[in-house]
């Protein structure tokens, strides 16, 4: 900007008008002109870089699958990304803004614990609680949040990320229920059941399995399953067990001769099933013995 006089008032007016600098008529020389041009270019580059950074962050904010939010101290939503709006079941950002985040907690105790932790530490990571969607359905969420304060320590706003872990929790509960059912069957079954590692050593046996071998009881655990077989059956069983452990089959069944602690021999229908891990690799064996009459 060109001005006929130079003063602080002119400087401030020029900046407020959007000028990068001003030059006083009659006082323009090459160094002053070079300085003004350089100042203008640097300011433009800084403004462009800031705008591009804000656009990148806004794009991430809008497209991340995790629910992101900013809320005022009274719980009013100041901003929310589409993922959060979808998680909470609202049609748009405006309708969510008419609700208070603190009123979404299904259990008031969760809200109190959440704010107690925030006020004490300033940040909460992985806080799990139940929230109520717009349609009244309850969902399980994992919340990570941080308080932002001014120089006087007053809370300006709350910023956080929300994950819907309802299905994860449901799957975990189903696994626990499945394990509980297996444990009940394992303990009560009249068939001998043993968990065996891939090398053939007994990891755990149920009461019926221990009873088949008389007073050995829990001392069976840690022994090799092959040691309990009659010598004539040991070699073929080892080969078949090795095939299972390598994943070359999933199950084998055969009549086998076993030897009890007192030396008596008995026949048992033996089934060995390969249990694979989450990656599909051989994990351990489930062996079931059904003794003949």
CATH class call of the largest domain: Alpha Beta
The main sheet comes to: 5 strands, antiparallel
The H-level CATH homologous superfamily of the largest domain, spelled out, is PAS domain
Structural shape = elongated
Total number of distinct structural domains:
3
Reading side by side through the largest sheet, how are the strands ordered? Answer: 4-3-7-6-5
Account of the 3D structure:
By secondary structure, this protein is an alpha+beta fold. The chain has three domains: 2-62, no CATH class; 64-169, 2-Layer Sandwich (Beta-Lactamase); 189-291, Beta-Lactamase (2-Layer Sandwich), CATH 3.30.450. Helices cover 38% and strands 29% of the residues. It contains eight helices and twelve strands. The strands form three sheets. It has a five-stranded antiparallel beta sheet with strand order 4-3-7-6-5, sandwiched between helices. A five-stranded antiparallel beta sheet has the order 9-8-12-11-10. A two-stranded parallel ribbon has the order 1-2. It is elongated. The relative contact order is 0.07.
Give a short synopsis of this structure.
The chain is an alpha+beta fold and 293 residues long. Helices cover 38% and strands 29% of the residues.
Please describe the structure with a list of short key phrases separated by commas or semicolons.
single chain; 293 residues; alpha+beta; Beta-Lactamase; five-stranded antiparallel beta sheet; 8 helices; 38% helix
What topology emerges from the helices and strands here?
Layout lengths: L1 E2 L4 H9 L6 E2 L5 H34 L3 E5 L5 E4 L1 H6 L5 H5 L10 H14 L1 E10 L5 E12 L5 E10 L1 H23 L3 E5 L5 E4 L1 H6 L18 H15 L5 E9 L5 E12 L5 E10 L2
Parallel strand pairs: 1-2
Antiparallel strand pairs: 3-4, 3-7, 5-6, 6-7, 8-9, 8-12, 10-11, 11-12
